[in-house]
Every structure is written in structure tokens, then in C-alpha cells.
């Protein structure tokens, strides 16, 4: 593997990590605001359920958008 390819791979990995961290931050901010209306020392069962559903929705949406974007980039690149 060439030095240039190693640098490209490192950049890809760092971008993927940054995207993942951004997704987690959005999930934490949006889902917490939506699901935990009265913060306390612990979560209720309904809050836990809401957070789980909200997180799943965000991840599925992110995966769909990312997949669609990658397909478009690959199509345009050919």
C-alpha cells in the first residue's frame, strides 16, 4: 500500500468516525428533548422505550440517507 493510499484510508476512517459522533450527538440532543420531559435521577419505562424507538428511527434514517448518497456518488463517478 502506498503512502497516498494510507493517507486516503486514514482520512476516510476519520470522516466515518466524525459522522458517527455527529449522529450520536444528534440522537442524544433530539431524542432526549423529545422523550425526557421531566428530567430526574432515573428514566421511567416509557422514557426508556421512547429513547430506544427514537434512536432506532434516527439510525435507520441515517443509514438510508447515507446509502442513497453513496449510490448517487458511485453512479456519478462512473
Keywords:
mainly alpha; 2 helices; 78 residues
**What is the mean pLDDT?**
88
CATH architecture: Orthogonal Bundle
CATH fold description: Helix Hairpins
Q: Provide the CATH superfamily.
A: Mitochondrial import inner membrane translocase subunit tim13 like domains
* Subunit arrangement of the protein: single chain
Instruction: Give the helix tally.
Output: 2
Give Rg in angstroms. Answer: 18 Å
Low-confidence stretches: none
What's the number of domains?
A: 1
Run of helices and strands: HH
Strand content: under 5%
Query: What's the shape?
Result: elongated
Helical residues, percent? over 70%
**Category by helix and strand content:** mainly alpha
> How far from one another are the termini?
24 Å
Can you characterise this structure?
The chain is mostly helical and 78 residues long. It has helices spanning 3-35, 45-77. Helix 1 (3-35) packs antiparallel against helix 2 (45-77). The protein is elongated, with a radius of gyration of 18 Å. The model has no long low-confidence stretch (mean pLDDT 88). It holds the Pfam family zf-Tim10_DDP. Keywords: Chaperone, Disulfide bond, Membrane, Metal-binding, Mitochondrion, Mitochondrion inner membrane, Protein transport, Translocation, Transport, Zinc. This is Mitochondrial import inner membrane translocase subunit. It is found in: Mitochondrion inner membrane.
Amino acid at each position: 500500500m502506498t503512502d497516498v493510499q494510507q493517507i486516503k484510508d486514514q482520512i476516510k476512517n476519520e470522516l466515518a468516525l466524525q459522522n458517527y459522533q455527529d449522529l450520536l450527538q444528534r440522537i442524544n440532543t433530539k431524542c432526549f428533548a423529545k422523550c425526557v420531559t421531566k428530567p430526574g435521577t432515573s428514566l421511567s419505562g416509557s422514557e426508556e422505550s421512547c429513547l430506544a424507538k427514537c434512536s432506532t428511527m434516527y439510525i435507520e434514517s441515517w443509514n438510508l440517507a447515507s446509502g442513497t448518497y453513496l449510490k448517487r456518488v458511485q453512479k456519478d463517478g462512473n
